[in-house]
Amino acid sequence: MFYYNISGIEKRKIVLLLHKNPDGDALGSSLALLFYFRKLNHDVDIISPTEYSDSFNWLPGIKNVLIFSKKNEDLVKKKFFNSDYIFLIDFNNISRINNLKKFFLYSKAKKILIDHHLSPISFDFMFFDPNVASTSIMIFRFISKMNNLDKIDNEIATCLYVGLMTDTGYFRFPSVTSETHFVAGKLMKIGININLIYNKLQETYHINKLKLLSIALNKLKIINKYRTTYTSIDYLDTKLCSYKIGDTEGIINYGLKIKNVVFSAFFFEEKKDFPIKISFRSKGNFDVNLFSRKYFGGGGHKNASGGILDKSLPETIEYFLKIIPIYYHNLMFSI
Questions:
Q1: Residue at which a domain ends, from 149, 174, 202
Q2: What is the sign of the dihedral through the CA atoms of 294, 296, 300 and 305?
Q3: Rounded to whole angstroms, how far apart are CA atoms 240 and 238?
Q4: Do 157 and 246 belong to one domain?
Q5: I want to staple 25 with a disulfide (CB 3.0 to 4.6 A). Which of 79, 110, 163, 261 is the partner?
Q6: Helix crossing, 135-145 with 24-39: angle to 10°?
Q7: Domain residues for 318?
């Protein structure tokens, strides 16, 4: 059994693999698992295909995240090929690991999924539940199944709480359940400083990020007939505002705050070349996961998803606007 092998006395080599542009849940979940597995005396590495936002630089253990680059390619390759287990944390499709895909596919390690997104592809071990609010809850369950909740210390609890807060929009999203608050309560009992965590997560608005937000709000369009809003940031905007990873986070939510709006879209031209990255958010029963999968090769959750399109930014927006009328009844009568 997998649980026996990972909890036994024999030391294992483990890679915790993140998706590109890892968010608070991906980082919090993987760092918590790093601390936990090291308590079990395993050899553990966290590998990310890209940089993460500076706003997470304060997280416990964050310096353990190995960011893939051409300079460390041989080292990363060695870690993949020498590992016993590779954990996919907070994502369920290898299309999200960029250039690490080749190492992942050729590694003989057992692949374990720990995630909460819909429609995963198959791996050696599957530990997922699309009904939970965050992957951090899945990590909590994972540790619980191994009868090791007593090993959750302040560092692990802080990391899990960050994942919980960020992926639930500070406990505001429809995905929040009684289990969400139960886990949060258990983590608080360990003694984490929730005021410090909240303040650290809020300290993300440097002047250039605010400039990007201002540009996006000025471009915001409202389509009252379809209860929809959309906005965009283009490549020139990113240059003007010295864009860093994470600076567009949260922009998508502003459109959804407008009265009677149930669907919000954000189009991001991060690079001169394609593809355009798209984020979708919705209220009520309008399923943006299905919408994104059907038209933009993406997915996620019912009320929060993303996708991409290999077209220019104007072409992508034009394509989106042609689709919206199809969903007139879905949007008008969304509860």
A1: 202
A2: negative
A3: 5
A4: no
A5: 163
A6: 20
A7: 207-332
